[in-house]
């Protein structure tokens, strides 16, 4: 029976094989065909008993002659065009474009007047605009002096007085002066929101949800209302590298929350990209970078332990890991660690030189939000800002204590505990993460932080530099977004089930609209009324004087303007703004309250100051209100009015 079936199959195969075309016809050689043969099937010789006699018989169905001729291979231009189209319509290309468009809309009017206005206020944003400009300038001119910034003259290691945004140095290499710095800041501000949404989308997709659910989670993470109070802190808004690095690392190791470990999906390239992205994220600053370092270390240790346990004890089927991927992890982890260590060294030097820079438990208590902060929105929220005014007034320091991630996100995450594509164990683990990070975000407000944030503050290296525990809300928001995405994915799956029961097997318009409703609600709750004040104009003297310069009045906020103004020449300036005030700068501010007099002039000369600039627009209410127009005869200095400033040459 088997032999007969094989013979029959062989007969069918032989009669179905097409006759190979003559090579001459392939090469374009003309052939003379009898008119009677056109349209007939090809034939092949059949052997007979007489070697001199041959006959032919058809080898295929005659009707196959009416089929279309095989298509030739497309040319290079056609293939290139198709490749470009495939790239443009790819999910990640579309996600990137959508993330950019949504970021422009959600941060509007940041790009309306990007040369003259800046989001939130003109204090910290001008400082951060200077940081990007300084890193780009010094890396092009003298990289060895990176940490010896032109501000806080004559202090050393002054670039490490606050987070540096060093990862944005390539952008700082383009353009010069305050206008370019403000434009650069506004563009990066919008791109940071786009990257946060794209990174969260990539992570949630990698974990195992569909597009709609990932979009909801990404919007909830990037545009959570509490982040509106951080609009003046670019180093906090620039958090997109965190979920993006986690997504790349998960993809490189073939792991997802929904499907577990799949060795066939491993990718050395994605794993390496994840480590590089993580290192870049840390280079933006330790404000959110330090918790990321420790959380990533915990993830790596837990993953390693689980892999070893499953490989040796409980799972009889051993799943491969791969030597190349292991070497990639070792190299990537070493690079990540090296970046963190090299960036930490200047901060340890600052801690040695400036003991007053150290944070204390009292500082921590001043910035620790109460439980009510998780349900209070900042003033910049369009939907909840005015409605929560009384609740904000009850908070000791509301800019760092309004931690509402969004009531819609809360509702979706709560629904995700009941109905979700995640398993019950995964839901409970996500809930535990939400509660743990939420407790840490409360700082010392949770039972004095004795067994929570206080332990980290006292015993974990570097953690005492973070005085604002509320920023741990970043991780709470990310976990809430993953929980919410699970609920939305389950809802979309239910809609698909209903659609399959319809005659057309396609969901109607109302069903499609229903799946997008959570996304719309999350975005609406993230709308803002963030102010965009005009940046103070640079005094003319800052464009031509080589310094060292002291600009009066000097204070934490006003000095940040001076830092921005110095981006034309990067001359040494005594002024500076950071998370703490060096003792010497505090002394300068105190002694110069009587400037110009012999005592203050002598002090500034010993310090090395050659030019003092007094801003007339800031004189009212200061000691200089009555002395600004007095002559300086007998003091050995020159005085000249330039625009709205009074310039003293020492």
Oligomer: single chain
What's the tally of helices?
23
On the 0 to 100 scale, the average pLDDT is 88
The total beta strand count reads: 8
Q: Which secondary-structure class do the elements indicate?
A: mainly alpha
Major sheet = 4 strands, mixed
Number of domains: 2
Instruction: Name the poorly predicted regions.
Output: 1-56
Q: In one word, what is the shape?
A: elongated
Computed over alpha carbons, the radius of gyration is 34 Å
Distance between the termini: 112 Å
Q: State the strand order across the main sheet.
A: 5-6-8-7
Q: Tell me roughly what share of residues is in helical segments.
A: 40-55%
Portion in strands:
5-15%
What does this entry show, briefly?
By secondary structure, this protein is mainly alpha-helical.
Question: What can you see in these coordinates?
Answer:
The protein is mainly alpha-helical and 650 residues long. It has two domains: 94-525, no CATH class; 540-649, no CATH class. Helix content is 50%, strand content 5%. The protein is built from 23 helices and eight strands. The chain has helices at 2-16, 23-26, 76-88, 91-106, 124-141, 169-172, 178-207, 211-222, 234-237, 241-252, 268-283, 286-314, 323-353, 361-366, 389-393, 407-418, 424-441, 453-459, 473-500, 509-525, 556-565, 583-591, 598-607, and strands at 43-47, 54-58, 255-256, 260-261, 549-552, 611-615, 638-642, 645-649. A four-stranded mixed beta sheet has the order 5-6-8-7, with no helix packed on it. A hairpin with a 3-residue loop joins β3 (255-256) and β4. α5 packs parallel to α21 (556-565), α7 packs parallel to α10 (241-252) and α10 (241-252) runs antiparallel to α11. The N and C termini lie far apart (112 Å).
């Amino acid at each position: 029976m088997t032999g007969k079936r094989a013979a029959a199959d062989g007969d069918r195969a032989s009669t179905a094989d097409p006759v190979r075309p003559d090579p001459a016809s392939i090469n374009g050689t003309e052939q003379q065909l009898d008119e009677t043969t056109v349209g007939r099937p090809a034939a092949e010789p059949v052997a007979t008993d007489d070697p001199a006699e041959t006959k032919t018989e058809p080898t295929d169905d005659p009707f196959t002659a009416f089929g279309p001729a095989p298509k030739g291979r497309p040319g290079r231009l056609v293939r290139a065009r198709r490749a470009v189209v495939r790239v443009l319509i790819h999910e990640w290309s579309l996600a990137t474009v959508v993330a950019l468009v949504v970021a422009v809309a959600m941060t509007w009017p940041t790009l309306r007047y990007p040369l003259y206005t800046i989001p939130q206020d003109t204090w910290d944003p001008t400082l951060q605009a200077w940081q990007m400009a300084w890193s780009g300038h010094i890396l092009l001119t003298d990289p060895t002096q990176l940490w010896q910034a032109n501000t806080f003259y004559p202090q050393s290691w002054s670039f490490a007085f606050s987070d540096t945004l060093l990862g944005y140095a390539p952008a700082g290499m383009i353009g010069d002066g305050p206008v370019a710095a403000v434009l650069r800041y506004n563009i990066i501000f919008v791109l940071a929101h786009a990257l946060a949404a794209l990174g969260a989308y990539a992570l949630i997709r990698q974990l195992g949800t569909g597009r709609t659910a990932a979009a909801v989670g990404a919007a909830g993470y990037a545009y959570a209302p509490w982040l509106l109070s951080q609009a003046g802190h670019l180093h906090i808004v620039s958090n997109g590298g965190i979920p993006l690095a986690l997504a790349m690392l998960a993809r490189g190791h073939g792991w997802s929350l929904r499907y577990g470990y799949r060795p066939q999906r491993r990718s050395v390239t994605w794993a390496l990209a994840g480590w590089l992205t993580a290192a870049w994220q840390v280079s933006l600053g330790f404000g959110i970078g330090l918790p990321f370092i420790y959380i990533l270390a915990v993830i790596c240790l837990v993953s390693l332990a689980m892999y070893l346990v499953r490989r040796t004890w409980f799972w009889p089927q051993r799943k491969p890991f791969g030597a190349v991927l292991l070497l990639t992890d070792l190299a990537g982890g070493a690079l990540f660690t090296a970046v963190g260590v090299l960036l930490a060294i200047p901060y340890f030097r600052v801690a040695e030189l400036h003991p007053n820079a150290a944070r204390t438990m009292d500082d921590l208590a001043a910035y620790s939000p109460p439980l009510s902060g998780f349900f209070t929105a900042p003033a910049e929220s369009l939907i909840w800002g005015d409605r929560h005014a009384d609740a904000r007034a009850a908070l000791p320091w509301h800019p760092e204590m309004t931690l509402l991630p969004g009531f819609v996100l809360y509702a979706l995450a709560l629904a995700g505990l009941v109905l979700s594509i995640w398993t019950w164990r995964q839901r409970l683990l996500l809930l535990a993460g939400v509660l743990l990070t939420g407790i840490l975000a409360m700082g010392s407000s949770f039972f004095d932080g004795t067994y929570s944030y206080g332990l980290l503050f006292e015993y974990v290296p570097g953690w005492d530099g973070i005085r604002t525990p509320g920023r741990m809300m970043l991780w709470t928001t990310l976990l809430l977004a993953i929980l919410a995405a699970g609920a939305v994915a389950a809802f979309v799956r239910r809609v698909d089930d209903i659609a399959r029961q319809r005659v057309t097997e396609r969901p109607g318009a109302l069903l499609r609209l229903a799946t997008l409703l959570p996304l719309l609600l999350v975005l609406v709750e993230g709308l803002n009324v963030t102010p965009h004040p005009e940046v103070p104009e640079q005094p003319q003297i800052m464009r031509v004087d080589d310094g060292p310069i002291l600009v009066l009045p000097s204070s934490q906020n006003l000095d940040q303007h001076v830092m921005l103004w110095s981006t034309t020449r990067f001359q040494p300036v005594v002024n500076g703004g950071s998370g703490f005030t060096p003792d010497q700068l505090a002394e300068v501010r105190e002694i110069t309250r009587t400037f110009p007099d012999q005592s203050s002039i002598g002090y500034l000369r010993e310090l090395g100051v050659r030019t003092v600039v007094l801003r007339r627009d800031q004189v009212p209410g200061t000691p200089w209100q009555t002395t600004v127009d007095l002559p300086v005869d007998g003091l050995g200095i020159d005085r000249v009015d330039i625009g709205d400033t009074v310039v003293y040459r020492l």
